[in-house]
Write a structure and sequence with these properties.
By secondary structure, this protein is α/β, with parallel strands linked by helices. The chain has two domains: about 170 residues, 3-Layer(aba) Sandwich (Rossmann fold); about 50 residues, no CATH class. The protein is built from nine helices and 16 strands. It has a seven-stranded mixed beta sheet, with helices on both faces. Strands 2-1-4-5 form a four-stranded antiparallel beta sheet, covered by helices on one side. Strands 12-13-16 form a three-stranded antiparallel beta sheet, with no helix packed on it. Helix 3 packs parallel to helix 6 and helix 6 runs parallel beside helix 7.
Length: about 300
């Protein structure tokens, strides 16, 4: 990490709600009281179906939009209450956002060198002095020999690598990347992800990526799945954990939600530090007498979910 450059920014969301209005005039709730914490220097992937709120959350974390309710902290700064002037300075110096699609992040009729210079326009003289030299940055993404080539003449993979170079040109403490490998070949995809991790190692940057690609997900130590505008589950080191939300709401793993249809009667019982769930139609589970008027249900069998266990 360059001398004098701080590491990553921590992220904290408390009860974040966001509404937007469609062209038809209908109000849509994109996020519903979302709570989330990301430690400084962590690398996290956001997962979830289309419309779950992933991209909305990214734009809120980047200060591009403000939440309708709730609070968002980047480090010690509450950006949901921050003035527009301070927010602009933070976006220029501490936070960098890669939008989906490389051309949305670049000046197509300008050279690679000009794009990097443009990305640094918001930096003051002292910050520019500490930043990685332009040629070194372009060399790290394999584009030094293309420094004077116009973006419009580059391949898709080259454009995406340049977009990444521009995103980290300010040495940001938080990098947000929305589908950074979409529409790339496997070779270009792997190179972009490798570069993201290399630059994270070098700068200590906190990195948050939205993706649908398993190959990208597997390279990150933590996954956060957004479902229905809330954090539904988290993954650590290959294990998935359900997240208890407001009012005790828990999103079941996708396979369970598919097999156990809405309206299914489920018995839930705490046994020491475990919560045990039983499906009423499980023929292998012994049944116990139920209260009058209720069907007999199995005695809790398997499907243990750690309760109160610290994530690895």
């Amino acid at each position: 990490m360059p001398d004098g450059r701080p590491g990553g920014l921590g992220v904290r969301c408390e009860g974040v709600v966001h509404l937007y209005r469609t062209f038809e005039g209908e109000d849509v709730v994109a996020l519903r009281g979302l709570d989330l914490e990301i430690l400084a220097g962590e690398r996290v992937v956001f997962l979830g179906p289309s419309g779950s709120g992933k991209s909305t959350l990214m734009s809120l974390l980047g200060g591009i939009q403000r939440p309708s309710a709730g609070r968002i902290w980047l480090g010690d700064d509450d950006i949901s209450r921050m003035s527009e002037r301070r927010l602009m300075k933070l976006r220029a110096q501490q936070v960098s956002t890669m939008l989906q699609g490389s051309t949305r992040n670049l000046l197509l009729n300008s050279t690679a060198s000009t794009n990097v210079k443009f990305a640094r326009m918001g930096m003051d003289a002292a910050a520019r002095e500490q930043a990685m030299p332009e040629d070194e940055l372009l060399e790290r993404v394999g584009l030094l020999d293309r420094r004077d080539q116009r973006v419009a003449q580059m391949s898709g993979g080259q454009r995406q690598r340049l977009a990444l170079a521009c995103a980290v040109a300010t040495m940001p403490q938080l990098l947000l990347a929305d589908e950074p490998t979409s529409a790339l070949s496997h070779v270009d995809r792997d190179k972009v992800i490798e570069l993201i991790h290399e630059l994270g190692d070098l700068l200590g940057t906190t990195i948050v990526v939205v993706t649908h690609e398993p190959a990208v997900t597997e390279s990150f130590p933590r996954t956060v799945t957004i479902k229905g505008g809330r954090v539904g589950s988290e993954g650590y080191a290959g294990a998935e954990y359900a997240v208890i939300g407001e009012g005790g709401v828990v999103h079941l793993p996708e396979a369970v939600g598919t097999d156990w249809q809405p309206g299914t009667l489920v018995r839930i019982e705490q046994v020491q530090r475990f919560v045990v769930m039983s499906h009423p139609d499980d023929p292998t589970a012994p049944t116990a007498a139920s209260p009058s008027g209720a069907p007999d249900v199995p005695v809790p069998s398997v499907v243990p979910v750690p309760n109160g266990m610290d994530a690895p």
